[in-house]
Write a structure and sequence with these properties.
Distance between the termini: 39 Å
Structural class: mainly alpha
Bound molecules: zinc ion
Number of strands: 5
Helix content: 55-70%
Strand content: 5-15%
Radius of gyration: 23 Å
């Protein structure tokens, strides 16, 4: 949705510029009139940069080449490994590698250099960076409880990487910056108060859009994660149970209202997961 907004803004901006500055147009018979060139370039860039998310089939805008995204993932991973304390617990490491390997195989991304590490850290968290670098913090393990619970977390994290969510977010930030510039160009010459109010309103709408988009990426990772865990042989209902436990563990802790958050509320999340379990069960291969 946000990926559409800056596009629309820059489109209308271009039209405004044309209205004010356009010379009497010579009769070209091609669409590539000089004033349309930037617009054509932007449209071409957007078409070239459109990717399709596996399984959900969603079209997404990713301006970053994938190899750059993989390199960024690798750099970030090396930094985290350097700065963090790795767990030496053999059983935990074996569990994370065992479950992580099964989820990784279910994604069919054989080109990823998959790696699995356990960090001795009480954060309730886990991650998968672009390129398949997986980290699990020991703080989440009491909540994941068993292999199926861990598979739900790893399915979700791996899905962020497979669906290229970080590349997509970087692209949106870029599109937003272009949108702000275009917006200001469109308002240039107007009353400064109009410009100021307009920019504030634009940024407010854009920020709301980015937050909503963050929540939709989380939901997409939940949906894809259910499918990958099911393909890996873990019953997808374990994801629902995990999020119930996660909700209980975070009870009483302050959290922003859903519309101000990059994450769906636990209630929304559980409801959505329940609605996607039948879809994931079509991929379920019990072992
Ligand atoms: Zn997530």
């Amino acid at each position: 949705m946000v990926q559409g907004d800056p596009g629309r803004s820059s489109g209308s901006v271009t039209n405004r510029v044309i209205e004010f500055r356009g010379p009497p147009l010579p009769q070209y018979n091609s669409i590539v009139r000089p004033w349309r060139l930037p617009l054509v370039a932007v449209v071409l860039l957007l078409i070239i940069s459109c990717q399709t998310v596996p399984l959900t089939g969603r079209q997404q805008l990713v301006l970053l080449p994938e190899n750059m995204e993989l390199q960024m993932g690798l750099d970030a991973y090396q930094q985290i490994v350097k700065k963090s304390k790795l767990s030496t617990d053999t059983a935990l490491n074996e569990q994370v590698t065992r479950v992580g390997r099964r989820i990784a195989d279910a994604t069919d991304r054989r080109d990823y250099q998959w790696e699995f590490k356990v960090f001795d850290d009480k954060q309730v968290n886990a991650f998968c960076l672009p390129g398949g670098k997986i980290g699990v913090f020991t703080g989440i393990l009491p909540i994941t409880r068993d292999d199926a619970g861990l598979a739900a977390v790893l399915g979700h994290e791996v899905s962020h990487a497979i669906a290229r969510h970080s590349g997509e977010r970087v692209s949106q930030q870029l599109a937003l910056q272009l949108g702000v510039v275009a917006f200001q160009v469109a308002l240039s010459g107007r009353d400064p108060r109009v410009m100021q109010l307009g920019t504030v309103a634009f940024m407010g709408l854009a920020t709301g859009g980015l937050l909503a988009f963050g929540r939709s990426q989380e939901s997409e990772a939940d949906r894809l994660g259910l499918i990958y865990m099911a393909k890996a042989g873990y019953h997808p209902s374990a994801a629902r149970d995990l999020w119930v436990r996660m909700g209980e563990a975070s009870k009483g802790k302050p959290r922003p209202p859903e519309f101000l958050s990059t994450h769906p509320s636990p209630e929304t999340r559980i409801q959505q997961i329940e609605s996607w379990i039948p879809e994931a069960l079509r991929y379920y291969q019990p072992r």
